Amino acid sequence: MKGLLLSLGLVALFALCAVCAQSDIPVQPDFQDDKIVGKWYSIAMASNSNWFQSKKQYMKMCTTVITPTADGSLEVVSTYPKMDRCDQRTMTYIKTDQPGRFRSKNQRSGGDYDISVVETNYKEYVLMSMRKTKGTNVYTMVTLFGRDKELRTELLDKFRNFSLEQGLGEDNILILPQTDQCMTEA
Ligand SMILES: *[C@@H]1O[C@H](CO)[C@@H](O)[C@H](O)[C@H]1NC(C)=O
To answer: What is the pTM of this model?
Structure first.
């Protein structure tokens, strides 16, 4: 009996952890995905991934275009300068049962993403959080998008505060330098 209770307790604990991994990240109440579509600029990023740390000093602002797909997911295409040309990266954000939360997979690196639209007013900014799981490693990435290349200081503060709350450090935070490269693509 004692053993059974212990096992049940462990099962409950694991189930709880699977849920809390996502639910400790807030999501925009009443999220409407049809209002988030269109063109955005990446204003700032924060991440503790090795990839980000090694690329950080070269990274620049880029454009991201969000388009709805027929099956209710979102296609997210980012265009960024690479050497002397523009490169594109496409991700499909697959809907989950909870509005504002999506799932995705990186075909190239084989990572799984849990994506949350933390906060948006649709017409000005989106604060987005991505949790990448690859093997036993979990990385956090926070991105601030703007409809314009400049955002109010208050929104940058909000992004910074949220990144720190997610356990990221000041050295994980990058306000992306503006560029004229690849800004008119897509
Ligand atoms: C960010 O955090 C600071 C310090 O806790 C607080 O004073 C400020 O109001 C916060 N700003 C925003 C926009 O949340």
So the answer is: 0.85
